[in-house]
Amino acid sequence: MSDFQNPVAGFGVTFKAMFKKRLTEQYPEVKKPTAPRFHGRHQLNRHPDGLEKCVGCELCAWACPADAIYVEGADNTDEERYSPGERYGRVYQINYLRCILCGLCVEACPTRALTMTNEYELADRTRESLIYTKEELLAGLEEGMVDSPHAIYPGMDEQDYYRGLVTEAAPGTQRQVAVSKGEVPPGGAAPVAGDEELRQKGVQS
Ligand code: SF4
Ligand code: SF4
């Protein structure tokens, strides 16, 4: 190519690019939807009555190649029950400064307590704000759920929860929780027979 043709060829590339479809994304004003199975922020799931699925087994922490998960399990008691079985995750943290969103922890979880959401906005200015706590990771309450701790569904055991036999919180669970905390039950209803017993014993399974 001659010295004269070189710049012309260069401008040719620019000229062609002017008619190509623009790929610029106007983030954060316009957020592009992710693929349905995108690996985003984690979530700790609940059973349909609001009890937690995590049993504090630490398998997710052992599976993590980046050492990003910290779990401390603890025993449930009749007075304070967070999950249907013997143990629950008392402390649960994921460090998003380390996490590479690979999903190995989700594969390792035996109870499907841990899954990933489509949320990808995980940037912040401080280390503390990027270490997500159990309270931040725990799924919100859906219809029919009552926040843990509360009693297991009467007549059901842990296996029944995994068989899908529990579909919502047992009638009166909200009242049990409020009474055991010494709070006014939902709707401000007047005390009924058995409330005092519940308050003294706490919420029992
Ligand atoms: S997604 Fe991968 S790196 Fe992140 S916590 Fe799970 S196993 Fe660890
Ligand atoms: S999230 Fe799953 S694997 Fe991790 S501690 Fe809880 S039950 Fe175990």
Automatic annotation (TrEMBL):
Binding site for [4Fe-4S] cluster 1: 54, 57, 60, 109
Subcellular location: Cell membrane
EC number: 7.1.1.-
Assembly and interaction partners: NDH-1 is composed of 14 different subunits. Subunits NuoA, H, J, K, L, M, N constitute the membrane sector of the complex.
Organism: Streptomyces sparsogenes DSM 40356
Textual note on the cofactor: Binds 2 [4Fe-4S] clusters per subunit.
Name this polypeptide is given: NADH-quinone oxidoreductase subunit I
PANTHER family: NADH DEHYDROGENASE [UBIQUINONE] IRON-SULFUR PROTEIN 8, MITOCHONDRIAL (PTHR10849:SF20), NADH DEHYDROGENASE UBIQUINONE IRON-SULFUR PROTEIN 8, MITOCHONDRIAL (PTHR10849)
Location (main, coarse): membrane
GO biological process: aerobic respiration
The keyword Ion transport is annotated on this UniProt entry: no
Keywords from the named record: 4Fe-4S, Cell membrane, Iron, Iron-sulfur, Membrane, Metal-binding, NAD, Oxidoreductase, Quinone, Repeat, Translocase, Ubiquinone
